[in-house]
Amino acid sequence: MIILLKRAYESPKPEDGFRVLVDRLWPRGVSKEDAAIDLWDKEITPSTPLRKWFAHDKNKWLEFKARYQKELDQNPTAVSAFIYHLQHKEVVTFVYGAKDTQYTHARILKAYVEEKLKTDFTLPHHTL
Question: How far apart are CA 74 and CA 71, in angstroms?
């Protein structure tokens, strides 16, 4: 699986593959039709308190990254369910609304999922 990142304000393209909104809030000014989102899973996004604490402050980036990874680690059921939905996709694009393309939680989530997939991550056997 290849995981790409793309801002919600960029036009969807066929090469995006399976498009996943990885924000807790819907991006302002983007219609659901224009976004072409295949999955919106709020359970794997940073919690509201963490998102508000970070407030896209680059000086908090390393601490934000650690806290977000901890939230993911503490929610294995949501992570498993999320990866389950992606497991047979060739290309997945994580779509996010932030203006800053470097300091976005989507990068953290991408690395986290890629690491889980490398370490023989066990997916649930039930249908969600």
Answer: 5
Tell me the H-state helices in the chain. Answer: 32-35, 48-54, 61-73, 76-86, 105-118
Find out whether 79 and 116 touch, Cβ atoms under 8 Å.
yes
Q: In angstroms, rounded to a whole number, what is the distance separating the alpha carbons of residues 87 and 113? A: 11
User: According to the model, what pLDDT value does residue 121 have?
Assistant: 56
Q: Which pLDDT tens digit goes with each residue over 40-73?
A: 999 999 999 999 999 999 999 999 999 999 999 9
pLDDT at 8 over 70: yes
Q: In what order do the strands lie in the sheet with 18-21?
A: 2-7, 91-96, 18-21, 39-40
Q: Between β-strands 91-96 and 18-21, what pairing exists: parallel, antiparallel or unpaired?
A: parallel
Q: What are 112's two structure tokens?
A: 């986290």
Q: How far apart are CA 42 and CA 105, in angstroms?
A: 13
Q: What values do phi and psi take at 39, rounded to 5?
A: -150, 135
